[in-house]
Amino acid sequence: MAETAREVAAGTLAPECASVADLYPESLLRATDAALEAFEREAHALREPSDEAVFGTVERVVLAPNAIDGDGQHGGAGFCTEEREQLCQYIDLTLSELGVDVAMLAARQSINRLEITDCWRDW
Predict the structure, then answer these.
(1) pLDDT at 7 exceeding the cut of 80
(2) Is the N or C terminus of the chain more exposed, i.e. has fewer CB atoms within 10 Å?
């Protein structure tokens, strides 16, 4: 959004082509950033976590976008398929970077690693 605003201000993008602001209002971006920052703090605090602790963290980070996606204060804006997939990849990547073997975590639950968010996801 900031880049789009700079392009409009510089005259390199016509205002009518700057519809990204409608798709991603500031309130949606701020709420999403806050939810992901909370997830990162919680995930970083995990030390040799049990599967239940990791799944608890995943549940909380999934429930936050559920609430954000359904919140009317964003003017009907929400997450499209691409953003949903990116959120799932972000969760997987963050856990992996912190040393969680997501594939093994999922296997112990008899699910695919791409399904670790599914039981809580509305988006």
Answers:
(1) no
(2) N
